[in-house]
């Protein structure tokens, strides 16, 4: 059985976090992952505080296991959502797309364990100083908002920069990826894309179909011009957006082109106007199954790979 310091720290069975996917990771998915022994996470994304409080309560009604809330720091509602997480005294807060320094004390005073996504060594060191419980090193293979570095480079750099437990994310969707993450120094993994295929994940059937069909070169990064690079499936929308970035379109028009695109993908399955966020690992995701089976299968797969690793050493 895989054992990890992060399991002990959080009271979970498997060192598997579910990524905080905006518009997607609701209370139902988070509870299913937590009931399966991982750490389920309710994503705030750009949603208002009332919605997030509602989803936290849904998760509480479906599981008595620990779960987290992901605060997307670029959200216009980040301040209110940060407050709701403290009021609801969730077990864990993960953060993304920014520096959560200004909220750390609020969450820590509420007894919440703070586990930020870091995409650089500098933020890793700052979060260590400010008392984070662990950090998530998320490489650019991931879906959604991406940093510059790959998982292969970022994880060992982050491990060298901190004594905190490090969770690896980006490009991990099976036991092989998880085993590799442990070899890089991580003590757990976070997966988003693999959980898009979970039976408890309520995305539009067209979204799920696209993930299950995705092959090696099916994702691309757009949004660099506006400073918010995001990885998504290579749909008509993504191709057109990419072209628009390199046209003489104004920044304002470009910004408007993206408005509402995440919702259109998740709720309407609209291939022409929706932005289907997904990591490179979509190519590795080939079937739908319960979230608990995903958690167990990935960890059992990692165990098998790690047990066989001595074949490389004489
Ligand atoms: O946050 C994510 N992934 C996301 S957020 C999101 S919602 C969105 N919608 C439209 C445009 C942009 C985002 C969809 N996917 N992952 C965690 C993550 N955080 N990846 C990279 C980072 C990151 C990057 C820079 C974290 C901190 C950071 O440093 C900020 C600083 O000030 O040092």
Structure description:
This protein has two domains: 5-202 and 282-311, Alpha-Beta Barrel (TIM Barrel); 219-277, no CATH class. The protein has an eight-stranded parallel beta sheet with strand order 1-9-8-6-5-4-3-2. The chain has 314 residues and is an alpha/beta fold. The chain contains 14 helices and eleven strands. The protein is globular. Helix 2 (27-35) runs parallel beside helix 3. It has helices spanning 5-10, 27-35, 49-62, 78-87, 104-109, 121-129, 151-161, 175-183, 193-196, 205-213, 236-245, 251-258, 261-268, 291-307; strands at 16-18, 40-43, 67-72, 92-96, 113-118, 135-138, 144-145, 166-169, 188-191, 219-222, 230-233. The longest helix has 17 residues, at 291-307. The structure holds ligand TUI. Ligand TUI binds at residues 22, 45, 72, 74, 96-99, 117, 119, 123, 138, 144-145, 147, 228, 230, 277.
Tell me the layout of helices and strands:
Elements: H1 5-10, E1 16-18, H2 27-35, E2 40-43, H3 49-62, E3 67-72, H4 78-87, E4 92-96, H5 104-109, E5 113-118, H6 121-129, E6 135-138, E7 144-145, H7 151-161, E8 166-169, H8 175-183, E9 188-191, H9 193-196, H10 205-213, E10 219-222, E11 230-233, H11 236-245, H12 251-258, H13 261-268, H14 291-307
Parallel strand pairs: 1-9, 2-3, 3-4, 4-5, 5-6, 6-8, 8-9
Antiparallel strand pairs: 7-11, 10-11
Helix pairs in contact: 2-3, 3-4, 8-14
The structure holds ligand TUI.
Residues 22, 45, 72, 74, 96-99, 117, 119, 123, 138, 144-145, 147, 228, 230, 277 line the site of ligand TUI.
């Amino acid at each position: 059985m895989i054992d990890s310091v992060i399991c002990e720290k959080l009271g979970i069975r498997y060192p598997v976090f579910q990524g905080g996917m905006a518009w997607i990771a609701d209370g139902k998915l988070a509870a299913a992952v937590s009931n399966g022994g991982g750490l389920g996470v309710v994503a705030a994304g750009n949603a208002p505080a009332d919605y997030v409080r509602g989803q936290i309560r849904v998760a509480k009604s479906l599981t008595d296991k620990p779960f987290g809330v992901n605060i997307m720091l670029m959200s216009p509602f980040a301040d209110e959502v940060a407050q709701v997480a403290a009021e609801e005294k969730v077990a864990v807060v993960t953060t993304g797309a920014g520096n959560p320094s200004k909220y750390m004390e609020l969450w820590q005073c509420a007894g919440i364990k703070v586990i930020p996504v870091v995409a650089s060594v500098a933020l890793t060191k700052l979060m260590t100083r400010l008392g984070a419980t662990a950090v998530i090193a998320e490489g650019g293979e991931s879906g959604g908002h991406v940093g510059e570095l790959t998982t292969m480079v970022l994880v060992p750099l982050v491990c060298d920069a901190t004594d905190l437990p490090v969770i690896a994310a980006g490009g991990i969707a099976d036991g092989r990826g998880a085993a590799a993450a442990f070899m890089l120094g991580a003590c757990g993994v976070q997966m988003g894309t693999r959980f898009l295929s979970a039976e408890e994940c309520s995305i539009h059937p067209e979204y799920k179909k696209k993930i299950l069909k995705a092959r090696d070169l099916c994702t691309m990064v757009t949004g660099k011009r506006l400073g918010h690079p995001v990885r998504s499936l290579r749909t008509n929308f993504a191709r057109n957006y990419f072209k628009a970035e390199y046209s003489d379109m104004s920044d304002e028009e470009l910004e408007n082109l993206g408005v509402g695109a995440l919702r259109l993908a998740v709720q309407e399955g609209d291939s022409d106007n929706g932005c289907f966020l997904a990591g490179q690992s979509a190519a590795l995701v080939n079937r739908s199954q319960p979230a608990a089976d995903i958690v167990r299968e990935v960890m059992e797969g990692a165990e098998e790979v790690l047990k066989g690793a001595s074949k490389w050493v004489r």
